[in-house]
Amino acid sequence: MKKTALPRTMFTQKMVPASTMNQITCVNIYKDGKFNMNGKLAASLGGKTLELSFTDDGQHFLLEESSGGAQSVRFPKSGSRRMLMVTELLEQQHIMLPAKYEVWLTEDGVWQGDLLENPMLSQSPKLRSSKKH
Fold first, then answer.
1. 45: burial class by Cβ within 10 Å (0-12, 13-18, 19+)?
2. Which of 97, 96, 99, 92 has its CA nearest to residue 113?
3. What is the per-residue pLDDT for 125?
4. How far is it, in rounded angstroms, from Cα 103 to Cα 106?
5. What is the Cα–Cα distance from 35 to 29, expressed in whole angstroms?
6. In 3D, which of 106, 95, 99, 84 has the Cα closest to residue 29?
7. For 86-125, how does the pLDDT look when each residue is reduced to its tens digit (9 = 90+)?
8. What is the model's pLDDT at position 122?
9. Are 38 and 25 in contact (CB under 8 A)?
10. Could you tell me the pTM of the whole model?
11. How many Å apart are CA 67 and CA 41, to the nearest integer?
12. Distance in angstroms (rounded) separating the CA atoms of residues 125 and 133
């Protein structure tokens, strides 16, 4: 097959990366207890000492900077830390893991996380085993 160079004027659809401004700030919480801030949130809060508190139903949380009392958690710069108490609370409230929370800065200057719909719930709840008995 003969290779033919096309004129550049035919290439009209420019592909540009999604703007980081559109990236939501979020936290993912995994079954192994990992509380994981995404890059955008870790850039703001990573490496800080924070207080983390949840609503009783586990649907929302607050992250606020702390001076380092007994209730404080020091997060590494990566913004990821294992916190088994969080996983236990979410499991008690029947929140499917991994759980994803959209996080935003309130007028009070604290970060609030709101549980997002779990995309795994839209799939069939029955998983077929590939093993033959």
1. buried
2. 99
3. 46
4. 10
5. 5
6. 99
7. 999 999 999 999 999 999 999 999 999 999 986 555 444 4
8. 46
9. yes
10. 0.72
11. 20
12. 21
